[in-house]
Amino acid sequence: MAEHRTMQRGALLDAARSLLSEGGTEALTFPALAERTGLARSSVYEYFRSRAAVVEELCAVDFPVWAAEVENAMERAATPEEKIEAYVRRQLDLVGDRRHRAVVAISASELDAGAREKIRAAHGGLIAMIVEALGDLGHDQPRLAAMLLQGSVDAAVRRIELSVAEEPGVIADTAVAMILNGVQGVQGVQGVQGVQGVQGVPGDPDDLDVQG
Three-state SS string across the chain, please? Predict the structure, then answer.
């Protein structure tokens, strides 16, 4: 009996992922879950008391899997720059995965306080992965820099989700280049690094040849 309930609960969560990835949070309804799983609507309520409860469990199950994928990619990288690139690229590689699409839909939704708190905590754990690498690069405010970096990743995710003209690989390359090199582009920042030594740490303005 316990095994059967576990299987049914898993089927409901899998159906929820599909609904979220296909139609966002508006598509996640108990009638839709019942239809996808072949259960009676009253049976769905035996497993989850509300839509928020479904979302909270998805957060508990899927965020750690997604975060582990990113963390594993970072562990294979050697330098802080490579770790940052792995952090960005792995998240963007996962955009097509149903778990990721569900997470994106959840993150953009209006939920109750408990579900929002779980999402914030999960995102905080993801951001914490990159703080050390940013500190190693010399950032005075590595956690703030990490939050801004994640904002760039989130923007790239949305761009890929739109299925616009650019290929996902081009979006990923551009996001990595901008995050690592800034808006000046590779050549400009390499010139600044030659004077400053550390990316992200301001040097003496008098040392730079600034064109008016």
Answer: CHHHHHHHHHHHHHHHHHHHHHHCHHHCCHHHHHHHHCCCHHHHHHHCCCHHHHHHHHHHHHHHHHHHHHHHHHHCCCCHHHHHHHHHHHHHHHHHCHHHHHHHHHHCCCCCHHHHHHHHHHHHHHHHHHHHHHHHCCCCCHHHHHHHHHHHHHHHHHHHHCCCCCCHHHHHHHHHHHHHHCCCHHHHHHHHHHHHCCCCCCCCHHHCCCCC
- CA–CA distance, 140 with 149 (Å, rounded to integer): 14
Q: How many CA atoms lie within 13 A of 164 on its CB side?
A: 10
Asked if residues 156 and 85 have their Cβ atoms less than 8 Å apart, the reply is no
pLDDT by 10-residue block (mean), the chain, 212 residues: 86 91 83 94 91 83 86 95 96 81 65 70 82 93 94 90 85 95 57 38 40 40
Give residues with Cβ within 8 angstroms of 165, minimum separation 6.
none
CA distance 76 to 73: 5
Residue 55's alpha-carbon distances to 6, 95, 151, 170, in angstroms, are 17, 19, 22, 32
Query: What's the pLDDT score for residue 67?
Result: 87
Q: What is the pLDDT of residue 115?
A: 67
* The pLDDT of residue 79: 95
